Amino acid sequence: MEKLPGATYIEACLQHNVYEAFSPEQYPRQSNTVTDFAKFLAASWKSPQDIDTESTKAKFIERFNMLARELLSRFTPRIHEISNSLDIVFTADYPSVLTHGDLCEMNFLVDPQSGHLTGVIDWAEAEILPFGCALWGLKNLLGFMDGAGWSWLALFPRP
């Protein structure tokens, strides 16, 4: 088996000090990564998969019910509102797609110089889900977590 080219996204960020001081010079590289991630997600829209709608929807409802039990009660109304709206994404008109289950900064491979996405690894948690369930991975490209908590990368206009 051949090794995919590139470095993990987190390694590339550390190499370019992205987490310490995001500068205008780093914007093109970051823009390439975000653009390629968007293309990666969009490609799945073109390859819809069959899904056991009721079983998958039941898993989502179970997860939302767990959140309602475990989180502070002030979140319960919103959790129930979202849970009751699941029919929107579980229709024949809305595609279910192969979804990566762990789009963290260690599972994106990028070219450290250009920022272009070269691969996505660790598909152990992949499953067929309604399109968009992996969109949370974008957050990992727009900020980072450190000892002080979550920080968003500073946004700069295109040079």
Automatic annotation (TrEMBL):
It holds the Pfam family APH. Residues 26-140 form the Aminoglycoside phosphotransferase domain. InterPro entries: Aminoglycoside_PTrfase, Kinase-like_dom_sf. This is Aminoglycoside phosphotransferase domain-containing protein. It comes from Aulographum hederae CBS 113979.
